[in-house]
Write a structure and sequence with these properties.
143 residues, mainly alpha, 3 helices, 0% strand
């Protein structure tokens, strides 16, 4: 819980979409939220399984009816488990897609940064050369 709150605070502090640190924080926040949701769903499933198991064990003395109901409940729980697993898989796929997109964005931004750094250096060299040419035309300065 504290980690999730910390991630949310960091996410709010990330001010720019092009901020790679902000993108990473958002990915971590999404991952923490998905993990929390998985834990919640797992707890819900366990609670459901336990409550239905207790009811079928404590039901009437009619054994064939109880066994039939137990089988129906088992099938229903199996279906619910599969549904939860499918949802979990979908959430994991969404997380992987988001992580891939963020990694791709980080790589693009790093490439852009390198290009701009090289362009900046090139322009500084040009300005330095032009300044040197102007100083040569003016001749030596007089004190």
């Amino acid at each position: 819980q504290a980690y999730l709150r910390h991630c949310k605070q960091l996410s709010v502090m990330a001010c720019d979409e092009n901020d790679t640190d902000g993108a990473v924080v958002k990915a971590e926040l999404l991952q923490a939220e998905l993990e929390e949701e998985n834990q919640r769903l797992l707890g819900l499933l366990v609670t459901t399984l336990e409550s239905r198991g207790v009811r079928s064990a404590g039901s009437s003395g009619n054994v064939p009816l109880s066994l039939e109901q137990s089988e129906e409940q088992r099938l229903l729980l199996s279906k619910q488990l599969i549904d939860v697993q499918l949802e979990n898989t979908g959430l994991k796929e969404d997380l992987e897609t988001t992580s891939y997109e963020l990694a791709s964005q980080v790589l693009k931004l790093e490439s852009k940064l390198k290009h701009l750094t090289m362009e900046n250096k090139r322009l500084l060299v040009m300005v330095g050369q032009q300044t040197g040419e102007h100083l040569g035309v003016l001749g030596p300065s007089k004190p």
